[in-house]
Amino acid sequence: DESDSLSCISIQNGIICPDGHLYDPSIQKHYTFNKWYHKPITPQNYQINTTYKNEYLLSLIQIWNNFFQHVTFDTLPKLIGIIKLLELHDNIKIIVINHIQRNLLIQFGKIEPSKIIIRNNSTTYFKCKKTFYMNFINTTSKSVKLGSSGYNTISKYIPYTPTHSKKNICYISRGKNTTRILQNEQNIINTLQDISKHYNHDFYHFENPKNIDELKNILINCNLFISMHGGAMGNIIWC
Q1: Angle at 88 between CA 158 and CA 23, to 5 degrees
Q2: What is the C-alpha R_g of the chain?
Q3: Which one is predicted more confidently, 113 or 164?
Q4: CA separation (Å) from 84 to 81, 116, 127, 199?
Q5: Rounded to two decimals, what is the model's pTM?
């Protein structure tokens, strides 16, 4: 939806919660784009990390994005906002959910590794001098859009990689997901294998892939990419 926009909120002397959103201890109020997704808990019952109490910290944590396809789809569209924020405040550090998100920021955003912190566990709160949190939100402020405004900006950060190796066809399955089931999935796989043989392509089948380097090298040479609707489609970023 092109009416969506990237929004950023900040709090002076705020706290970053384990699921990424901000908390203002002075008025005991949560600031989150994701009220529909979780019920915030006041930090009083958890450990508070004060290592960054005198620093600026941007939260890129999304609690449902702890694996490759979603963390890619959520992070890369935010790069324009992240880079702009770093230009305004070059002393900002960024807290991310895992090494995958860290590596995406380094590779595509050219962000210094020293500026990136990986969340160490799911219960620690971070107290900071100033906290930032950004997400895509629609114009009516009623729902969050996971990276949906970034489709026309991501390509600016991805270098063109010419390739001369053998072409391939890639199918990404939802694996054992119980809510998105293809009853004829094996028929689809068999058909794709036949097509691959006909055109002398290689065929690859993944279930919820997590190895970035392996998947990237395959999709760079991909002639046909198929997946069920959902975050896995974010993998076409490498095609």
Answers
A1: 95
A2: 20
A3: 113
A4: 5, 16, 23, 45
A5: 0.72
Q: How far is C-alpha 71 from the chain's CA centre? A: 2
d(CA 64, CA 166): 35
Q: Alpha carbon 17 to chain centroid distance?
A: 18
Beta-bridge mates of residue 59: 95, 133
- Which string of DSSP letters, residue by residue, matches 47-106? -EE-TTTTSEEEE---TT--SHHHHHHHHGGGHHHHHHHHHH-TTEEEEESSHHHHHHHH
* Of 17-21, 34-38, 189-193, highest mean pLDDT: 189-193
pLDDT in tens, 59-112: 998 776 666 667 877 888 888 889 999 999 989 999 999 888 998 899 888 999
Q: Rounded to whole angstroms, how far apart are CA atoms 48 and 13?
A: 13
Give CA 58 to chain center in angstroms: 14
- The tokens 């290689």 sit on which residue? 202
Identity of the residue numbered 170: C
Please, which residues have CB within 8 angstroms of residue 138's CB and are 6 or more apart in sequence?
1, 3, 4, 144, 145
Distance of CA 169 to the CA centre of its chain: 25
